[in-house]
Design brief:
2 domains, alpha+beta
């Protein structure tokens, strides 16, 4: 595996390259790694996860109050709305996760 580090302008990045023969043809895979992009994407993902955890925690508080009997009545269709709300909480579009119920 060949690893090359290159600097273009003021941006530093790494290039990883691999060649293999598959099904009788030589194939080449080239991966470019930009540390700045990786840092930004990771921060976005962490922010999205933090937001989802806060919202799930708030939902958990409400559900526990319902179990304790503090909330006795709900609007009709509350179960389906809760399911929709849970799906919205877990939807993280920035990381491209595909959940099984979609």
């Amino acid at each position: 595996m060949g690893v090359k580090k290159q600097i273009v302008g003021n941006r530093r990045f790494s290039i990883f390259s691999v060649e293999k023969t598959l099904y009788g043809k030589t194939r080449r895979l080239v991966v470019v790694f930009l540390p700045e992009l990786h840092t930004n994407q990771r921060q976005t993902l962490e922010n999205d996860l933090e937001k989802a955890l806060r919202r799930l925690s708030a939902l958990n508080v409400r559900l526990e109050a319902r179990v304790r009997g503090e909330i006795r009545r709900g609007r009709s269709g509350a179960n389906s709305r809760s399911a929709v709300r849970a799906r919205e909480f877990l939807a993280i579009p920035s990381c491209g996760i595909s959940w099984p119920w979609r």
